[in-house]
Amino acid sequence: MLDEPPETSVETPILEVVDLHKSFGGQSVLNGVDLSIATGKVTVIIGGSGSGKSVLVKHLVGLLRPDSGQVKLHGQDLFAMAPDDLLKARRQFGMLFQAGALFDSMTVYENIAFPLREHRPLPREEERNLVHARLAELNLENVDHKYPAELSGGMKKRVALARATILDPEIIIYDEPTTGLDPMMISQVDDMIAETQERHRVTSVVISHDMASTFRIAHHIAMLFEGRIVECGTPDEFRRSANPVVRKFIFVSGTGPLQPNAATPAEVA
Asked: Which residues of 162-213 form beta strands (DSSP E)?
């Protein structure tokens, strides 16, 4: 196993969200989000359904423009960039979608090679070596000729991750990666996220509502509630949180007692 990446303070983030606001049709979704994403770590953004997690993610990669506020990558505001510079910045992100979003009409090999052919064309032998190396890292040897319909759910997740990392992005975003999976598969996906972060020294941003998974993989956790980040901290700090919103979310998730003040039924009623 590789050594842990050096500790990086959240005061010097790779990504920073500053007072971000976004509304749709008069309905406010993000109400002043402030968030720092530490370099080389796993940050999990938690929150209930409809809390704005997916909208926040689309801002992180520059797909949605805020009503006001900033998203900074290496200190540069994405939304102040020229269009060509914004396109280059987006290539620093890899995205693993909830359902994988593989192309059904393409083989595993073609799915993984697709970003290379679009953005960084290589000689065919070099491309083949790179794709096969990424498949081997994820224990997917001898499936390059198969189509997504022939793969198990776990294999689809790993193929999608191979595609998301083939351009060696600095940041990988995982959108609800464990939704709809059984406990054994959730554990495998958690291991996949942790191993990828460790092997490639990437910064990982995971969108989740699964607290058991969150506590297994997170270096830092941020909770989104009513359009704002209401708490940030380490897993231990979240377990000790005095914030009633955080305490209720953890309690109803069934992930064990809070420390040192266990939530009571009255708190979560």
From this structure: 171-175, 203-208
